[in-house]
Amino acid sequence: MGSGTETAALGYEEARDELIEVVRRLEAGGTTLEESLALWERGEELAKVCRHWLEGARARLDASLAAGGTEEEPGE
Question: Domain-by-domain residue ranges, the chain?
Answer without folding.
Answer: 10-66
